[in-house]
Amino acid sequence: MAPIQWQYKPFAPSEDDEENIDIGSYTPKSRTTRFKKLVFVFIAVCTTLYLSVRGTQALVRFLSKPCHSTHHWHSKVNHTLGGGLPTHFTLPSGDKIPSVALGTAGRGEVGLAVKTALEVGYTHVDGAWAYRNEDEVGKAWKASGIPRDQIWLTSKLWNFFHAPEDVEAALDESLSNLGTEYLDLYLIHWPIAFKKGTDNVVDLELTANPYPTWKKLEEMVDKGKVRNIGISNFNIARVKNLTANPLKYKPAVNQVELNFFNPQPELLNWAKENDLLLEAYSPLGSTRQVQESLNQPIVQEIAKTLAITPAQVIISWHVQRGTVVLPKSVTPSRVEENLQVTALPQDLFEKLEAAAVSHPPARVVNPSKGWGLDFDIFDDEWPL
Ligand SMILES: NC(=O)c1ccc[n+]([C@@H]2O[C@H](COP(=O)([O-])OP(=O)(O)OC[C@H]3O[C@@H](n4cnc5c(N)ncnc54)[C@H](OP(=O)(O)O)[C@@H]3O)[C@@H](O)[C@H]2O)c1
């Protein structure tokens, strides 16, 4: 086939063009300028039309789509996340878990939060059966059009379903609510097993030895219903108690409370030494303490120095400590704000770390009393 011949035809100058004032100045350079102007006007008109029809968020999504098919849907993640911090951590399975997730526990319209999060570049949503909103999360994800392999979905097994014969049905319910065939990560929500159908009566045997529950979770991995399994709210003693068994798959993560008031440096160091990734829940101190966290003088000072927000200082600090972080917000502007992490200069990072570990630790989440337990879930001496 003969190659296509392009013939350059200059645009005819119109009467009101500035270039038309003096035809003598109509040089190839001014032709280029006129062409650029036309292209600019064309793009401006198209953008205005697109925005009026689809809205600003759709444009943001359109622009953040990759040009190349081998890229992930959210090329934006690489621009918004990072700033020298890891965008992902690698699990024992080889899967890469995104370092910042949207938390979905608590009050508020979670569907809108998930919608916003996916639009601005989150690829990780932390959920649980107990949050009673997995269907809302699933609907928001489905509406986003994001392919399944480009979003990380975590759910958690509630205390009533630790008996091996109950695990699969509980998992199936979460899968069905979310509208997915598999989870990226499934956690034992608490190291406490309740007897099903009771008013929080503890199954002492299964609580003291969660291995039967774990074996069932391993089976779920082999069945392809879950890609990674992990634990939540396990202290070091409880992790050791579980991992003393001949596990087929070791826990991929331990999701625990980590924030300015409860930074748990010993657990963090131990987890690193033992190749167990921590996920920081209530990273801002939860609704109860978020303002107090953000108003800490050191947090304010770093925020001013780096011209970022106090929440961004804290969320960045978590990732820099080497943990996945799960800030929750149902406020669209905050959802977006919380994804913009950046590496803190080493001296400022150390100052914040020193301030966080300098006071006696105080947990914000401890349901031991609320559940009527006669022991503390986080007691190092129990259940060994
Ligand atoms: N495994 C477990 O047992 C466990 C326990 C607790 C939590 N979690 C997980 O961790 C997630 C986060 O924990 P959390 O919800 O307790 O606490 P959090 O993320 O530390 O704090 C949430 C509070 O901070 C506010 N907030 C968020 N971003 C903000 C910002 N940029 N500026 C000012 N305020 C901001 C939120 O308000 P608005 O929403 O009004 O914006 C909300 O009141 C949960 O959603 C859940 O996924 C797991």
Keywords, please?
2 domains; 384 residues; binds NADP nicotinamide-adenine-dinucleotide phosphate; two-stranded antiparallel sheet; TIM Barrel; alpha/beta
Helices and strands in order, then pairings?
Blueprint: H1 28-54, H2 56-64, H3 77-80, E1 88-90, E2 96-98, E3 102-103, H4 110-120, E4 124-126, H5 134-144, E5 152-157, H6 164-178, E6 185-188, H7 204-208, H8 211-222, E7 229-232, H9 236-243, E8 253-257, H10 265-273, E9 277-281, H11 286-294, H12 297-306, H13 310-320, E10 324-325, H14 332-339, H15 346-357
Parallel strand pairs: 3-4, 4-5, 5-6, 6-7, 7-8, 8-9, 9-10
Antiparallel strand pairs: 1-2
The protein binds NADP nicotinamide-adenine-dinucleotide phosphate (NAP).
NADP nicotinamide-adenine-dinucleotide phosphate binds at residues 103-106, 108, 126, 189, 232-233, 255, 281-287, 290, 311, 326-331, 334, 337-338, 365.
GO molecular function, one term: oxidoreductase activity, acting on the CH-OH group of donors, NAD or NADP as acceptor
Keywords: Membrane, Oxidoreductase, Transmembrane, Transmembrane helix
Domain NADP-dependent oxidoreductase: 113-354
